[in-house]
Amino acid sequence: NERKIQDMDKLSVIGQLAAGIAHEIRNPLTSIKGFAQIIQERVDQPDVKTYLIIMLDELERMNQIVTEFMVLAKPHEIIDIKKVDVNKLIRSVIQFMEPQSLLKKIRILTSFECSITAFLDEIQLKQVLINLLQNAMEASESTKNCIEIKLKSIDDQHYLIQVKDQGPGMPLEKQNRLFEPFYTTKENGTGLGLLICKQIIDAHKGSIDIISRHGEGTVVNILLPKVFS
Ligand code: ADP
Ligand code: MG
């Protein structure tokens, strides 16, 4: 238990650090973007204009990453509950992951049984899906099997998002440790991804379940309420 408290302390230090760094990056980023925009409007040479457009695109991407990174800092604070199109949200996360999935040659398929709108924090739910897809992609690296995201309505009040991979799966003793802070089997892992997912889903009053079979793959089920109260 003492160990757990120490881990949580470490976690909040990392969170504060992450928030500080993200904030420090945000300011110069905004300023560079502003100047690039001004130059882009004033410049005449078409090739220079093209370069500036690429720069602005990349700056916007960095901005996006910083925004998503800032979620790390306050994982259990609900920032911004809004009515969100969940199908669209899932599609935008898949698009965000596309450079990586193309590079790794792993396909991400969707199977939407219906359209869902729900009340949630969009940035935080995106963070959950990014973390889960990241894990699924890392697990699928050896097999190259595709990943599937399902969306389905459970009843009037609940819906399910399922992320399924056909990677190596995990034995039970690993499954029991998944939500421990800093539990990782990866060389460059943080062991924070799933813990952050759990904190965000808990804050939304939902649940997250991971079912895995050694040698067959892993299924993550997220059950969420459609209305937030
Ligand atoms: P990290 O990815 O940084 O290691 P996570 O909290 O995201 O941290 O995951 C913790 C551990 O759980 C991983 O190191 C891995 O061993 C295991 N794991 C998570 N998702 C999967 C998956 N889809 N397939 C197999 N193992 C997984
Ligand atoms: Mg991870």
Automatic annotation (TrEMBL):
<keyword id="KW-0902">Two-component regulatory system</keyword>
<dbReference type="GO" id="GO:0005524">
    <property type="term" value="F:ATP binding"/>
</dbReference>
<keyword id="KW-0597">Phosphoprotein</keyword>
<keyword id="KW-0808">Transferase</keyword>
<keyword id="KW-0067">ATP-binding</keyword>
<feature type="domain" description="Histidine kinase">
    <location>
        <begin position="20"/>
        <end position="228"/>
    </location>
</feature>
<protein>
    <recommendedName>
        <fullName>histidine kinase</fullName>
        <ecNumber>2.7.13.3</ecNumber>
    </recommendedName>
</protein>
<keyword id="KW-0547">Nucleotide-binding</keyword>
<keyword id="KW-0418">Kinase</keyword>
